Amino acid sequence: MEKVRCLIIGSGPAGFTAAIYASRANLSPVLYEGIEPGGQLTTTTQIENFPGYPEGIGGTEMMEDLRRQAQRFGAHVRRGIITSVDLRQRPFHVTVDNEHEIEAESLIVATGASARYLGLESENRFRGMGVSACATCDGFFYRRKDVAVVGGGDTACEEATYLASLCRQVYMIVRKPYLRASKAMQERVFATENIKVLFEQNTAEVLGDDNGVTGARLRHSTTGEETQIAIDGFFLAIGHHPNTELFKGQLELDDEGYIKVWGASSKTSVEGVFAAGDVKDPSYRQAITAAGSGCIAALDCERFLLAQ
After folding, report:
1. Other Cβ atoms closer than 10 A to 150
2. Which of 16, 38, 148, 300 could tie 42 with a disulfide, CB 3.0–4.6 Å?
């Protein structure tokens, strides 16, 4: 059985930053990339709000940069999916791809959170070509254009008001006859002139061509009547789910399934297990905050191992 001092699960900004810091601390970290190497950013065509890239950079390209930087300092980056973990005692027992066994003295969980999508074939086809689950990340590309936001909760209202400051017209596609958002958020939406709320509407299809999204076909929830809107961007704001299935019953999670950490640290309910990135962050979900928390997790992990 392979023995590892520091095992990192996940390969987004949090995981790779943790690997960079852990490598420089001579922890000889092993990082498994998981089911989506590079994380959610690999589905983003252009990133313009990450420090150090004044001209912007493609999501996949940035993840390759982070991977190479981690490997430069000695991190062992591997393809593979963690299929089971046992955190009842240290060293922790971890299985990769249902066959390779690892004993890990410490563990950094950076498995991220996945945006919820509607499940439409057309939505998947235009992902990264006008379909996005992050207005803060991608809204800048739709300045003075028309966009739609799917959802009726606080997150959808926040994203719609943010996009309204950039875009010409923002449609909110809401399947119910009312908004679920707080009263304050509702008032903000209704007070914003270039937001139009389309109640009792479901998205039947995202429309587009080789250049990306051009519109959406909507279906009324009650009557079934179909209409079309012309848009350049289609934003999902119907929530995220943290990738914590492996840790249910082993780590303390909040009501939404995010890993709970102690205060500003990365320490979880199990000594020697640390969490970084979106898997413990239901609020910000940005590449830069994930990277910062990866640094914190590696420093906490280093201090933990030195104290043993």
Report:
1. 25
2. 38
Give Cα 109 distance to the centre of its chain: 14
Rounded to a whole number, what is the largest CA-CA distance in the chain?
Answer: 66
User: Hunting for tokens 């991220």 — which residue is that?
Assistant: 112
pLDDT band at 44 (very low <50, low <70, confident <90, very high): low
* Positions marked active-site: 134, 137-138
Domain containing residue 280: CATH number: 3.50.50.60
Higher pLDDT, 39 or 54: 54
Quote the tokens at residue 168: 């010409």
- Whether 7 and 107 share a structural domain: yes
Q: How long, in residues, is the chain?
A: 308
CA-closest candidate to residue 37, choices 57, 75, 66, 72: 66
- CA–CA separation, 150 vs 52, rounded Å? 32
Task: Please give the Cα distance from 60 to 39 (Å, whole number).
Answer: 9
Are 129 and 98 in the same domain?
no
The count of other CB atoms within 10 Å of the CB of residue 245 is: 9
Q: What's the domain range around 300?
A: 2-114+240-307
pLDDT at residue 155 tops 90: no
